Input
Amino acid sequence: MIEYINLTQAAQEIGITSTSLYKIINHEDPEKRLDPVNRSTHRGDGGYRFRLDDVLEFKNNYVKQDLTSVEAARRIGRSTTYVHKLIRDGWIAYYEEEYRGKKTYFIKEEELERYRRENPDAGKSETVYDKRTGLFIYQPFARNGEIARIVELKRVNNRKIEAKLRTNEDQLLTYDEAVIQGWQPALSITERKPVNGYGYACFEFPAPKSPDSIIFSIIEELFKHAGPANMKLTNADGRLTVEVRKCVLSGVMPATHPDLIDKLKLFMKSGEIISKYDGTLIDTGLLPVTLFLTEDKKKDWARRAKERNLTLQEWIMARID
Output
């Protein structure tokens, strides 16, 4: 005996909305339609009717077997735009088919797993601060008189951050492992508004050897007073470079913090340290210069700077130096 179902039941069986099923019924390609048994009389019949066997056969051909780019993005915790870029750049094999009325990229699950296995850090970006969790690079953690610090902080996506801590016994822990073992933040910082002034003062430190290094204490003060939005940190070739926009270290004065100020002066690579009545000013030491050029000359200089992947300011300074 043939079993018939209505449009709502057919949509539920396939796993789509009634609106989508209407589009399929009237698809311009006859091979991609699901034909009702009463196309010409459905108005008088109170709606479309379908053979259940026809719906089940259509469902088998309609339900995808592989991952769409949206699902692949969700699997690796990235945006669909990011996955599309991987496809365009040839990092992930894919095929394209029409799915639910539109052209769709498909990725086989084993192909996505291969990419994840070969590129465990792909898509992750280093950051100095995560607003949602309050974690920041080189943040100190304490447990029973011991100290550890965040030595890696990577953003996976807008909602996920990965952090690793190194203890004073040189043990490397993920953030989750550290929390389980009882490590707690020993310092939290407050966000500060980005400074609009041009340039940075630059400090260059030898890479600290242990979590209790005085260098980390200096960086903590910069985080507290300048804020992460006004800092850039680079750890490479045994040197830790810290760039800071113009800021005041309130309450930090020669009478109260002589060692800190001496260390800042010792490791300053560019900029100025100026004592004030209420603290210490870290200044970039940069002054503006007005320069008049023809429009053609400005465009020419901008083009030359872009060819060398430099800003116009950097290109001019390199020529002057």
About this structure: The chain has five domains: 4-62, 67-118, 125-185, 201-283, 290-321. The chain has twelve helices and 18 strands. The first strand starts at residue 4 and ends at 6.
